[in-house]
Structures are given as structure tokens and as C-alpha cells.
Write a structure and sequence with these properties.
The strands form three sheets. Strands 1, 2, 3, 12, 13, 14, 15, 16, 17 and 18 form a ten-stranded mixed β-sheet that branches. A six-stranded antiparallel β-sheet has the order 5-4-9-6-7-8. The chain contains seven helices and 19 strands. By secondary structure, it is an alpha+beta fold. 26% of the residues lie in helices and 29% in strands.
Length: 343
Amino acid sequence: MSYVQYSIEKILDLCAIPSPTGFTQKALKYLIEEFKKLGFSYTVTNKNSLLVDLGHGETNALMLVAHVDTLGAMVKTIKSNGRLSISRIGSYPFNLIENENCIIHTREGKEYTGTIYLTKPSVHVYKDVGKLERNEENIEVVLDQKVFSEEDVKDLGISPGDYISFDPRTILTKTGFIKSRHLDDKAGVGILLGLAKAIRDYTTEPKRKIYMMFTSYEEVGHGAASSIPEEVTEIVSVDMGAVGEGLNSNVYSVSICAKDSGGPYDYEIVSKLIKAANLSQVSYTVDVYPFYGSDVESSLFAGHDIKHGLVGPGVYASHGYERTHIDAIEATLKLLQTFVEMD
């Protein structure tokens, strides 16, 4: 199995594991088992980030970071009619989850399925369905249970504060497209697993010490704010490349971010990523993302003295039903293999 195939396999596996921000235990367990198989040492931080030591040099370490947490929701209240009002986890417009199947995860470990609907969903009953504002008041979860009251729902063990995950609807087409929710950032996580395997096999031999961190709170802005080893001088986020009008990025290439909402990325790191892309002869773009923030920026805001960069496969329809192509996965992996071998 090639490293690209391995990465894709892991991406598909990870997309099937619910992991809204703060509810990442199952996904982290999966990663731990994978790194055990690869033979690398790791620690789980108090904040539920997974920090993996891939060895090699002693100083001037590089850390590659991806986030395992995804968008999701939480039960806000149980309505008198047995429906659930929700509170968003992460940033997305409500229309992007309308009519989505979901799972409610109780504190006792029970799971119940449901569907996210408008409170007035039927065009045969409500003439203004298309004009109804998509907001917290007009969206609700209808459970796949015979419930008719708040008490009926409480009897199931569902309570405010329970997590809600969205059906990822993951598909790998015969033409190489990966379509799924949560490619942000399970694509990045899978790519780092592929890189770790290449390093384990000595196919890729870094010139410096390498760490990988997988965070649980990126979608709410403070994923990589803590637990950075002292010897780390550079951090590169491996996250999705934003695709859309006004950008060069596409779903077949690796995107190198020069600037996003948090400002410019480190000039030397961006230049080095571009050099790595050219050396590895992959399809790449350099982009400025208008509405974006990354794990590595939370490291800077927390006061860490590091240089920072951001790279990832182009992903279309971000924070919705996303799509990319195996060409973008391969391009990102090859760029990173070259990047870690550079001085």
C-alpha cells in the first residue's frame, strides 16, 4: 500500500468517527492505536491534544499540527413537544446543516439518531418555507423515537449539554473524489499519518526533530495554544486549503497559505513551503484566505515564539458537505515529505 493510499484509508476511517470540538475521545483513541502500530512514542496532554515524538534531531524542532475536532452542535433545550433546540459548535451558517441526519450522544454513552429540520419544513403546509430565516430559533432536531413531550425525551437520558454529531456521508468515487463532512481537518490528520508512516519506513528522513500534534479545540480557536515542546521553533498547520472565487486553490492541488484573517504567515516558512512544492514537482497554489484561522495562530496568540506556516489540500464547500480529490492529498503529502527533509 502506498503512503497516499494509506492516508486516504485513514481519512475515510476518521470521517466515520464522530468528534465535535471537545468530544474527540474516540478519534484520539483511533490515532493512538495507529501510532502504537507505527512504533512512535506519544503523550496525551491535559487538554486532550495528542503529541507524538517522531525522533531525529535534538534541537530546532519542527511541529506539524492538525486538528481532529470538527463542527457539531449541542443540545440547548428540550422542547415541550419532544424536539431539541441546538447550539452550534464551531462556525457555520444553519442552512449548511438543514435536513442533515445526526446522532445525539448522551453523557451515559447512549446514542440516538435524528434529523435536523426547520421548525416549519413542509412546503405543503407553510408557504414561506424558502423565506424562513435559518437561525437557532428556526432549526430543531427531530428524534427517531416516539416522543411527544419533554419528559419523554428526558426518559431516554437526553439532557441539555449532550453532543450532536452530523452524518458525514463519506464517499470515495471511482474518479478519485472524496466527498464528506469534516474533511476539515480529517484530511490533514490522514496526511500526517501517511507522513509518519513514511518516516517510520525511512522513505522520508527528516533533517531535524519532528513532532506532530493533533488538537481537540481548533474549531473554537484555541487548539494549539498550549503544550508545545520547548525545542520547537517552527510550527506548520496541515489543514484544508480554502477553495472559492478569487482564490487560486483547487481540489487537485496543495494550497500554501500566505495570509489569512490572522495576518501574514512567516515569510521564510511560506518561501520554504513553496520551494518544497517546486522540488517535489507537485501541483500547488499560493493563496490568501479571506475568512480563516488556524491552529498555529492560536500558538502565536498564546505567546509562543515560533515561526508559522499553513498548508493543505484544496477543499471545496468548506464547513458544509466538503469535497477534495486524491490528487490534492498526494500533492500535500509529497510536499511535506520534501519539506521535512530540508535543512
